[in-house]
Amino acid sequence: MANLAIITARGGSKRIPRKNIKEFRGKPILSYAIEAAKSSGLFEEVIVSTDDEEIAGVARKYGATVPFMRSAENSDDFAGTADVLVEVLNHPQVASVNFGYACCIYPTACLLDGDQLKKAWDLLKAGDWDTVFPVVKYGYPIQRSLRMDSDSSVAMNFPENGNKRSQDLPPSYHDAGLFYFFHVDRFLSNRKLWTERTAGLVLREMEVQDIDTIEDWEIAEFKYDMKRKSG
Prior knowledge:
The chain has a single domain, classed as Spore Coat Polysaccharide Biosynthesis Protein SpsA, Chain A. The protein has helices at residues 30-40, 53-61, 81-90, 92-95, 114-127, 184-190, 214-230; strands at residues 3-8, 23-24, 27-28, 45-49, 101-105, 131-137, 146-148, 154-156, 173-175, 179-183, 198-203. The strands form 3 sheets. Strands 1, 4, 5, 6, 9, 10 and 11 form a 7-stranded mixed β-sheet that branches. Strands 2-3 form a two-stranded antiparallel ribbon. Helix 1 (30-40) packs across helix 5. By secondary structure, the protein is an alpha/beta fold. Keywords: Nucleotidyltransferase, Transferase.
């Protein structure tokens, strides 16, 4: 069965205008996700789902296809990732290929590389999982997290852990916000990327960066520069 990469890159971005094609270290940030997918050698096709003609042009320039423009219904601030993926996978031009697996990649995944995708693919196949996505360990145990009230007073969310050493508490993880590699038929049957048969691929903090603010963008540039220096 063939594999498909789907990069979701709509035009609307309020906190960082035109974020998905903003220049990142010399080229549009979208290009990094496209190049990672292509360099992995895992995908017969790399599709960019977008509602924006300029983004479509950038996608094609870097080797992706844009077989159709995303619907208005799935282009607003309330459209979920699953809805966008269903639209792509059910499009006649895509459905006719009968892709067995697909990978949803976010357009600002500038630290992504082909090796990470290969590791996810190997894990997905080895465990017959519905979905595999990268996770990152929290830098400090969330069991000792604090809350702050309006008067600036602080209190523990889990006071029962107040006297426990941080090294004695189990680690917690969060979604790295890079990609989701999934079984197409199972996804289309339940329209969920996270099921009871979902596995996490653990990545290091320096390998990932979710980008929502200018500060996030600057951190991503720092991590990218460090990654290039380390080879």
